[in-house]
Design brief:
The chain has 139 residues and is α+β, with helices and mostly antiparallel strands. It is built from four helices and five strands, in the order αββαβββαα. It is globular.
């Protein structure tokens, strides 16, 4: 039996799986958005924290935002300053909702960085949906 962590990161105990391959080659809109954001970021015109794609995981941001890689206490992304602890992210793709909640105190850590992260994830989710259902996006 193959064990795989659902956070999207590769751990020593997790054996490789075909699902671990980057999603970009299978999704043209994702591949194009990744390439454009990479170019604009490399040119210095896009802050890395303003991306709707993840340069590390090569996925839409909402697909991998729950990864510990996306926690940054200095900036405040996915961080509860009251508890000084990592916050959890839940992405409900059906409802189109993204929430951040501290696993220690149960509160929503209100910070500018967390609000921006939720907005970026919502934009990422909307773009991913438009790539999967282009006819619905055009309507």
């Amino acid at each position: 039996m193959t064990e795989k962590c659902r956070c999207g990161d590769h751990h020593a105990w997790a054996t490789p799986s075909l699902e671990d391959r980057p999603a970009a080659p299978r999704h043209p809109l994702l591949a194009a958005t990744l390439a454009q954001e990479d170019r604009v970021e490399d040119a210095g015109s896009l802050d890395p924290t303003d991306r709707v794609t993840c340069r590390t995981h090569r996925r839409w941001l909402h697909d991998c935002v729950a990864s510990p890689v996306h926690t940054n206490p200095a900036i405040g992304y996915r961080w509860c300053r009251r508890c000084d602890h990592q916050a959890l992210v839940a992405v409900d793709e059906l409802a189109g909702e993204v929430t951040i909640r501290c696993e220690l105190c149960g509160s929503v850590p209100h910070s500018r960085a967390n609000r921006e992260l939720v907005e970026l994830c919502l934009r990422s989710l909307a773009l991913a949906r438009s790539g999967r259902f282009p006819q619905a996006a055009a309507a």
